[in-house]
Design brief:
GO molecular function: phosphatidylinositol-3-phosphate binding
Subcellular location: Preautophagosomal structure membrane
Family: Belongs to the WD repeat PROPPIN family.
Low-confidence stretches: 240-255, 267-274, 338-394, 399-410
Helix content: under 10%
Membrane topology: Peripheral membrane protein
Mean pLDDT: 78
Radius of gyration: 22 Å
Distance between the termini: 11 Å
Strand content: 35-45%
Number of helices: 4
Number of strands: 28
InterPro entries: PROPPIN, WD40/YVTN_repeat-like_dom_sf, WD40_repeat_dom_sf, WD40_rpt
Shape: globular
Strand order of the largest sheet: 20-21-22-23-27
Length: 410
Amino acid sequence: CSSLAIGTTTGYRLFSLSSVEQLDQVHESNEIPDVYIVERLFSSSLVVVVSHAKPQQMNVYHFKKGTEICNYSYSSNILSIRLNRQRLVVCLEESIYIHNIKDMKLLKTILDTPPNTTGLCALSINHANSYLAYPGSAANGEIALYDGNTLKTACSIPAHDGPLAALAFNSTGSKLASASEKGTVIRVFSIPGGQKLYEFRRGMKRYVNISSLVFSMDSQFLCASSNTETVHIFKLEHLTDSRPEEPPTWSGYMGKMFQAATNYLPAQVSGMMNQDRAFATVRLNISGQRNICALSTIQKLPRLLVTTSDGHLHIYNLDPQDGGECVLIKKHSLLGSGKTEENKENDLRPPLPQSYAATVARQSAVPSTSTMPGYSEDGGALRGEVIPEHEFATGPVCLDDENEFPPVSI
């Protein structure tokens, strides 16, 4: 959650998310029109782009060099792409292709998957646990879990009664969240075992289309957004943890009575009693639009980011202790001309940015490559540290430096 990539009718744009007050455009490309998929490998210069002009072709670029690494064509339209440091996954309606990201070779083709018209799939960003999740059935909410490292099926999870609408791994690949097309219940499962850990009720009055599920980097919170005006944030905590014995009170006694009663109630009823309401919420001033959410730490504080399909980024403060209604602190337009002089004066970022995206966004303050020995085109070498670059033409894509392509947990 350190950068934002958007596809537009004229190409695509990449933004750094290192500041609340300022939205820095890292890169803009107008070479390919009508981009509907743009995926960036963490904070690196590797981006994967798919255009409506050639919806069956995936183009992999090093955007800083303006170089195309490779392109692949498939038998039908590409619906989604997911990538981590080990794997690049291409999802079509009835098949999934798994590439080795170090040389882009095709490792595995999963054929005859259940019809997946939205290209729903999730890949763990932790390359040590490269688990892939996708719908195992078009009729019900079964999740197929696949190990992208060993290239073997891990398990099948009966997650919901109705078809799946959203899937998301946490940062370590140890948990998987899911929602069905009804959108009323969100469940969290352990990975790779598939045991149900949490169940959250988003609402009972109306069905919604959940468009975004995302964990915070520390896996303490889970955010769900839909086509309604409300965004829900749930807290992942066990209510039956090992706490010191509470003094006997009437409310405590009744609580234990209710807890005991659930053992004798039908499963549906007892499950309802164990479900948690949202810990925090956001009320957007729009509804009916598709949006994507992220839980991030910006300038050392927890934030909720909501990007809407009309081209705006909303940044909210999140109170990790008390929750409640999140407060909107900034709204950015993603379709403007980019950074202004006024924005430069209001730059609130630390003087020595640690991330690649932050460094590139400040490149005007860095000497050019020719005058600064040891400065890598690819990022944060403010003090002469050399960060290995991608290799092109002469060899495979080089992603051997552990620090260049994090996920970094703050």
